[in-house]
């Protein structure tokens, strides 16, 4: 498993290492740099009506309360980077309730990323492009509890209860505490609830990243858009990877949303964070998707854009826009919503949505009133929602894979014995798998893996400046029955060291 002497550049070494790891598949990140708008529009749940709560919306400019595939395909432009992607992506917005009872939207950092993962669960199954008319919903707006153990146990220890679709859907939500200066990053889908304000103030200096994984298994017989847009799809048994359940045999791209909110702007201010659907726990986070792709174009991208770096530049199928071009694309606001101020400050959440902390399910609130009359809402120091405590200081790395990363489990799958480990300072206290991040990491992170850097290079992608450091590290390989042997291995780490734009 030694690195070939023909590999002469750090980037080539990184690509070779990633390509050698079973379980790490191609993906790309669809950068939707600026939202179309913030509005109570949701054509999947409240078709033709004013939606119950506000959403932050990205994608094709023909999005509307009645938008469907044909409308989106006919969009003149999109707020996402690839001109070919006229899809619609939307999630609830995040708001802050001040101590005087008023609400204002939390600032969004850099739009959203929609990851397209090309994972087949090791089956060799073809991944099929989203068909014309395809739509789906992930998450449950009324959910206010979590039924599984906290934190997630290693996937190899998941019980039958934890492998149900209901449990997998609970694990498909993530709330990633961002603190780049700390030298530590949390795995995606590590925490399944929204931390309270005191935790965010103390630990998340760079905000909170809300994450959502969509089902990637489709029952073609159920159609592309059944009522409710959930019954036709299912999660593979590892949420983002693994095997599809019986009856859902068609493999789709694994869609994954990331949206960053600037909770750090409210440090020292009295109040609470709450999603626009009245959820202060995060358990009711959800998202919607309507495909707006020309199907042959998307299928060509799925079949041919199989690089492991996740950049759109690696895929010649796409015609890429600049950030100013994306930012110029805005929603045509329906007449009955033009006077609604979803951003605030206002005395209620948009649509007069009540705050419901659970743990019982929230009640539906589909008033659908136009230009609502805001009634002052009483404010009291919020009672803490029923959420567990998971410290970011000692994260438990229990996922075998997450966006843009690979794990020791991937190396094990490539033929290294199960006793092998890449040691880090955080790993000594846990028996769970340890991750080597290649997604954005803080500037000058602490060198904790014991390796020595043998080469570096930098490159720019999607406006971000990255450094690739190639390290040589020791790993132990157990060869039965002769025992263990030490080997040297080249390891690639991608570090986010800055931005080429003013985000």
UniProtKB/TrEMBL annotation:
It comes from the Eukaryota. Transmembrane segments: none annotated. InterPro entries: DUF1996. Residues 1-26 form the signal peptide. The keyword Hydrolase does not apply. The keyword Signal applies. This is DUF1996 domain-containing protein. Residues 42-293 form the DUF1996 domain.
